[in-house]
From TrEMBL, chain A:
This is Nickel-dependent hydrogenase large subunit. Residues 78-130 form the NADH:ubiquinone oxidoreductase 30kDa subunit domain. Residues 275-426, 444-509 form the NADH-quinone oxidoreductase subunit D domain. The keyword Iron-sulfur does not apply. SUPFAM superfamilies: HydB/Nqo4-like, Nqo5-like. The keyword Oxidoreductase applies. It comes from Azospirillum isscasi. PANTHER family: FORMATE HYDROGENLYASE SUBUNIT 5-RELATED, HYDROGENASE-4 COMPONENT G. Keywords: NAD, Oxidoreductase.
TrEMBL record, chain B:
Residues 55-166 form the NADH:ubiquinone oxidoreductase-like 20kDa subunit domain. One of its GO terms (molecular function) is NADH dehydrogenase (quinone) (non-electrogenic) activity. NCBIfam families: PRK06411.1. This is NADH-quinone oxidoreductase subunit NuoB. The keyword Cell membrane applies.
Length: 513, 173
């Protein structure tokens, strides 16, 4: 596309493939190779999919978007240092800061060396490194970026916000009502998920994966399960594959419905929230009747699914589709026809196509700004290759476009549920719940890309010989969306921040881990 | 739009009847509230929700309490934006160390008499997050807890039953 060398072409020249990494290759690079990769990244469009540390090594994953090729690259860093990717891939910066805070790995020549997850409150530094260190005595306050100019004032907000939402800190610099800069500070809900997963049997680690971000519990469970299955070369029963997609689409609809209402509510149109929250409740109740949990937590497990759909399930799901098809379109018509609402959402919080591509931002944030990427389609995974669906893409990049992408996705997911339900009876029920056992005693490395309602999740896992988790890195889509929220609000009025924020709805827990 | 409003007006309420106040919750609360507190509260409760390290699952179900089906406000229970207006702190999560100070400061900012409700398995017992470097554990290790609502996450009806128990106990004279 840019006359560039193919991803695999370069990596085969500068790196050595590592055995047992599935389904995409992993290459071990030397320091020279890593520097060469950085050079190459300056001139090409490979998307950063993730960057994570472990003891004395750093890994990064990339995708060549037009071919769909994916690869992981690794660099041993015995001195605990590696050349930073942040200058060529700005989205790497916060991930590098996280790798520093957890593993003590230093990114050389980084664009921003400040701590990120470590708020000096753990009682230990670099907790996951070989030699955790004593905390800094009398730590100073976090330094926010300097802002200078006439008539500027700062508004600090959070970590505890006014609504029932997750905690994070926002530092607004405003000129009158207009936001000149927003700087985020996150990490407040860091629970140490990656550390807790280490050394755990797969089944226990799966429970942690289900609690990375409660709203995307199905998607995160699916990403973890598929990474484990890739590592072990396990094929799950057909029926489980279809039930997983069913749950994933229910989760997508429930979240979009809740968010569409909440965005309108933040534009002072409470009616919409009152309506869509009823529809959301309807979805959650159906999920509960079908799978025994309103959010379907712990229902997708490595090896398959934990429960099968009861006999009456297909009927309940079809009823749900019929009801949503009846009740949702009139609400969409109201959204479309309310000038006072459009006045708030149109041209508010614009993110440019250039920025979403530079950060590799997915989900409705990317697709509302022209980035045509959906993990269900590319690289794609079963059963979506057998299902018909469209990936809505718009180019305006404003709050309104993000709302419309979500509206269209609700419609697509309803159609997907219908298609899945039609296929299910033909797929043998088999045992009481479709799954294959995960035997201990085998190891391997695996990776999965899964499309959550928010965007693409990348989960990477290494299992040791005992079948326990040696290292797992679940990268929530929010990592690449949060930085864009800072850009989206620039030039808008402070009062529009809740609206912009809700239209993104980045995860705090999924990001902070 | 007009049609929608008309249907809403003529269709009758979608709200469901309330569950009975949870018995174990009632038992836990009995004796915790002294007379002065009861007199002060009357029959209303203002709640400040604090996410102290939740996965956001608990928040989703707390949100559901505000939908027209559960309609929490009909009981005089409402969520407020500032701890200074709150009687109750509804705390979720295994208290991440990074949230501990904010949680304590929110509690300090809440006027007496005040109650703390631990919502969800994480807040009640630390959940799956105990033993790591990043979480303190149950809310009760940081603040005195008056009511525990277990579940992962608790269902809206369980939340409702727990909060009603708090209301009943605090309103009884
Ligand atoms: S109790 Fe469950 S739903 Fe609630 S914060 Fe903990 S893990 Fe999430």
């Amino acid at each position: 596309m840019y006359g560039e060398e193919p991803l695999f072409g370069l990596l085969n020249r500068i790196g050595t493939p590592v055995e047992g990494h599935r389904p995409w290759p992993r290459y071990r690079l030397g320091r020279d190779g890593w520097l060469r990769l950085i050079e190459e990244l300056k001139g090409n469009a490979w998307s950063l999919l993730g960057l994570w540390g472990e003891v004395r090594a750093v890994h990064a994953a990339f995708r060549e978007d037009f071919s769909g090729d994916v690869a992981v690259v690794s660099l041993d860093c015995p001195q605990g240092r590696f050349p930073s990717l942040s200058a060529v891939r700005p989205a790497a910066n916060r991930l590098e800061r996280a790798a520093h805070d957890l593993y003590g790995l230093t990114a050389e020549r980084t664009t921003d060396p400040r701590p990120w997850l470590d708020h000096d409150s753990w009682g230990v530094r670099r907790p996951l490194s070989e030699q955790p260190a004593a905390p800094v005595p009398n730590p100073g306050p976090y330094t926010f970026l300097p802002v200078e100019g006439d008539g500027l004032h700062q508004i600090p907000v959070g970590p505890v916000h006014a609504g029932i939402i997750e905690p994070g800190h926002f530092r607004f610099t405003a000129n009158g009502e207009t936001v000149v800069r927003l700087e985020e500070r996150l990490g407040y809900v860091h629970r140490g998920v990656e550390g807790l997963m280490q050394g755990r049997p797969v089944a226990e680690a799966a429970k942690l994966a289900a609690r990375i971000s409660g709203d995307a519990t199905v998607a995160h469970s699916l990403a973890f399960a598929r990474a484990v299955e890739a590592a072990l070369g396990i094929a799950v029963p057909d029926r489980a594959v279809w039930l997983r997609a069913l749950m994933a689409e229910l989760e997508r609809i429930a979240n979009h419905l809740g968010d569409i209402g909440a965005i309108c509510n933040d534009a002072a149109f409470a009616f919409m929230l009152a309506q869509t929250s009823q529809l959301r409740e309807r979805v959650l109740r159906t999920a509960d009747s079908c799978f025994g949990h309103r959010l379907m937590m712990d229902r997708v497990i490595p090896g398959g699914v934990a429960v099968d759909l009861p006999e009456r399930g297909t009927g309940l799901l079809l009823d749900l589709v019929v009801e949503l098809r009846r009740r949702f379109p009139p609400l969409v018509a109201i959204y479309d026809g309310k000038a006072s609402l459009q006045d708030r959402t149109v041209t508010t919080g614009i993110v440019s196509a250039e920025l979403v591509n530079r950060f590799g931002a997915g989900g409705h944030v990317g697709r509302a700004s022209g980035r045509d990427q959906d993990a269900r389609r590319s690289p794609g995974y079963a059963p979506y290759d057998e299902l018909a669906f469209e990936v809505p893409v718009l180019t305006e990049g404003d709050v309104n476009a993000r709302v419309w992408v979500r509206i269209r996705e609700v419609e697509q997911s309803l159609s997907l549920i219908e298609q899945i339900v039609a296929r299910l009876p033909a797929i043998s029920r088999g045992l009481d719940h479709p799954s294959v056992p995960i035997e201990a005693g085998r190891g391997g490395e695996g990776m999965a890309l899964v499309e959550s309602f928010r965007g693409e999740i990348m989960t990477w896992v290494r299992l040791d010989g005992e079948g326990t988790v040696a290292r797992c890195h679940p990268r929530d889509p929010s990592w690449f969306q949060w930085p864009l929220l800072e850009a989206a609000i620039g030039g808008n009025i402070v009062a529009d921040f809740p609206l912009c924020n809700k239209s993104f709805n980045c995860s705090y827990a999924g990001h902070d881990l | 739009m007009l049609k929608h409003i008309l249907t809403s007006l003529t269709g009758g309420p979608v709200t469901e009847p309330a569950p009975a106040p949870a018995d174990p919750a009632l038992a836990e609360l009995a004796g915790k509230l002294d007379k002065a507190a009861k007199a002060r509260l009357g029959r209303s409760l203002s709640i400040r929700e604090v996410d102290a390290g939740s996965c956001n699952g608990c928040e989703l179900e707390i949100h559901a309490l505000n939908n027209p089906i559960y309609d929490l406000e009909r009981f005089g229970i409402r969520f407020v934006a500032s701890p200074r207006h709150a009687d109750v702190l509804l705390v979720t999560g295994p208290v991440a160390h990074n949230m501990r100070e904010a949680l304590v400061r929110t509690w300090d900012a809440t006027p007496d008499p005040k109650w703390v409700v631990a919502c969800g398995d994480c807040a009640v017992g630390g959940g799956l997050f105990t033993g790591g470097y990043a979480c303190v554990g149950p809310v009760e290790e940081v603040l005195p807890v008056d009511l525990r609502i277990p579940g992962c996450p608790p269902r809206p009806v369980d939340l409702l039953a727990g909060l009603l128990a708090l209301l009943e106990t605090s309103a009884a004279t």
